[in-house]
Amino acid sequence: MARQFFVGGNFKMNPASRKDKVALVKLLNEAELDPNTEVVISPPALYLIPVKGSIRKDIKVAAQNCYFKDSGAFTGEISPAQLVDSEIPYVILGHSERRTLFHESSEVVAQKTRAALDKGLNIILCIGETLNEREAGETAKVCEEQLKAVVDVLKESDWSKIVVAYEPVWAIGTGKVATPQQAQEAHKDIRSYLSKAVSSGVAESTRIIYGGSVNAGNCKELSTLPDVDGFLVGDGSNHDLRDLVVVGCS
Ligand code: PEP
């Protein structure tokens, strides 16, 4: 089964002003995008509703995080129910910055994934190893452990709403992109794990995208790898997202 190519833009805590946000939306609205690529942009929570209201309809919008409760005394959090009520279709969960800076365990990521799915959201689920873990030969083990927490709380049918983002921590925001060989090996191992832990059908149909210092200049070769189904772009999403979709991945 052909997997639709996917390009996500994680703006992180950028842009710093409403003016820059408007300029970014304008740039994307005027771009000629590949109609065969699913494009999802993820602005900061404060900008989700205005971006959703002003971005072209063939670009979807994602939150960068959500909590696992519907409502209540959880200061600073956003619930899956609120995202659905605001017509935001996607949420990024398990980003390494959340895991590291905000101490989110794989179990919490799994709880959030379950809650988001229960409300009907699509998930970009991030996993990936640190440099120490890679150097210790533990890349596959770490990815499996992070995925297993989610596998344990999902039904087979839930996987149609999940995009797995393999994002080696050492490549995020560092300018050090994984080599094609490193990316293909990790993606293939993740697919094999899904086949073993869920089903061969889920392994075959689930999109596994790569994130970590991707830009318009280095995406071309990565995009041709058999198990790489797209990208999650962080810093590059302010200037390169349009090129990634138009040039790099068409
Ligand atoms: C990310 O934050 O998901 C990411 C891939 O960042 P960058 O492209 O900046 O490495």
UniProtKB/TrEMBL annotation:
<dbReference type="Pfam" id="PF00121">
    <property type="entry name" value="TIM"/>
</dbReference>
<dbReference type="InterPro" id="IPR035990">
    <property type="entry name" value="TIM_sf"/>
</dbReference>
<dbReference type="InterPro" id="IPR013785">
    <property type="entry name" value="Aldolase_TIM"/>
</dbReference>
<comment type="subunit">
    <text>Homodimer.</text>
</comment>
<dbReference type="GO" id="GO:0006094">
    <property type="term" value="P:gluconeogenesis"/>
</dbReference>
<comment type="pathway">
    <text>Carbohydrate degradation; glycolysis; D-glyceraldehyde 3-phosphate from glycerone phosphate: step 1/1.</text>
</comment>
<dbReference type="GO" id="GO:0046166">
    <property type="term" value="P:glyceraldehyde-3-phosphate biosynthetic process"/>
</dbReference>
<keyword id="KW-0324">Glycolysis</keyword>
<dbReference type="GO" id="GO:0005829">
    <property type="term" value="C:cytosol"/>
</dbReference>
<dbReference type="GO" id="GO:0004807">
    <property type="term" value="F:triose-phosphate isomerase activity"/>
</dbReference>
<protein>
    <recommendedName>
        <fullName>Triosephosphate isomerase</fullName>
        <ecNumber>5.3.1.1</ecNumber>
    </recommendedName>
</protein>
<comment type="pathway">
    <text>Carbohydrate biosynthesis; gluconeogenesis.</text>
</comment>
<dbReference type="InterPro" id="IPR000652">
    <property type="entry name" value="Triosephosphate_isomerase"/>
</dbReference>
<comment type="similarity">
    <text>Belongs to the triosephosphate isomerase family.</text>
</comment>
<dbReference type="InterPro" id="IPR020861">
    <property type="entry name" value="Triosephosphate_isomerase_AS"/>
</dbReference>
<dbReference type="GO" id="GO:0019563">
    <property type="term" value="P:glycerol catabolic process"/>
</dbReference>
<keyword id="KW-0413">Isomerase</keyword>
<dbReference type="InterPro" id="IPR022896">
    <property type="entry name" value="TrioseP_Isoase_bac/euk"/>
</dbReference>
<dbReference type="GO" id="GO:0006096">
    <property type="term" value="P:glycolytic process"/>
</dbReference>
<keyword id="KW-0312">Gluconeogenesis</keyword>
